[in-house]
Design a protein that fits this description.
Length: 384
Amino acid sequence: QKSTVPNLNKFDSTYKKNSHPPSISSFKKSLTMMFRGAILAAVATSLALLSPADAFTPNTIARSRPAFTSLSETAAPEAATSFDLNEYIASKLGAIEAALEASVKSTTPETDKICESMGYSLMAGGKRIRPVLCIAACEMFDKDGKEEAEKKAMPTAVALEMIHTMSLIHDDLPSMDNDDLRRGKPTNHVVYGEDVAILAGDALLSTSFQHVAENTENVSNDRILDVIIRLGKSVGPVGLAGGQVMDLECEGKPVDEVTLDDLRWIHTHKTATLLQVAVASGAILGGATPEEVAACEKYSLNIGLAFQVADDILDVTASTEDLGKTAGKDEDTDKATYPRLLGLEGAKAEAQRLTDEAKACLAPFGERAAPLNALADYIINRKN
């Protein structure tokens, strides 16, 4: 049997028909006012002192909603079970989009412009892979049912998309990739100016941590803090920022001066880490054991790398219209990519190998892992 790879061209009508606003509470009822202040203060110090493994595992181990980005129509490889990923994602997107929109509303005229800039990029469409991964992982372990799991995971799902959107805003800046098209729309700095775009990205990043601390309900305080630490580490020197710096340093180097290990380090930290945090955080919020979290981390590291390999392949094979961003940009900037180092066919084989290894990590969870397995297949078969 084969898993169904998404074809979400119909999502405009599906979303409007099936969307339902999630229950976004203002504060976690079980947190006292004192703890809420303490948890945010703890983040600043804990990010520097603790790793996610230290915190959880033993042994230090404009406002209108846009059309959704279409997913791939390609047939998926063999999967363990038949699973309709179209239907699954459609069932989640309404709540995700409503939660995202509610998270960046301006509360005073003085913040209208910055919130508008934040919302412009946050609500610009996209596949919402990170929020869906987080919710799916939480559902895999939560014993209170899927509806409760979605409520527990939603603040973190929103935070993940805020961080991802920040990275896109900053990545498109003239000082970085200097791109003027993202998700088929002018990039943030083209619309609002480079100064406001930088600040919008900064605001999305800081708000992401606050959103998790204030809005996560029915989860123990230590698990919430663990999630916040993981989110913080994912964008630090051993996360997105460090990966981006290494990527910039390798740009323009001759192909024989950039090794496959260099490329894997870049994309483990620049791309895979946030996907890894999405799955691990969902598992933690759902009550997973340290061993179960570790299995989820191995799965998500592999799909994170596979995601980047697929991105590199698409930059060579897809059109600007299909991608919603400038195609061929990697070649134009002489960037180190998997097709450049392995060749196109070698890159495709590497993407499949990573996906197969990812799915093997979830074998102990059986049918409960069907959404995550289907998402792994989608990641390497997408068209944008």
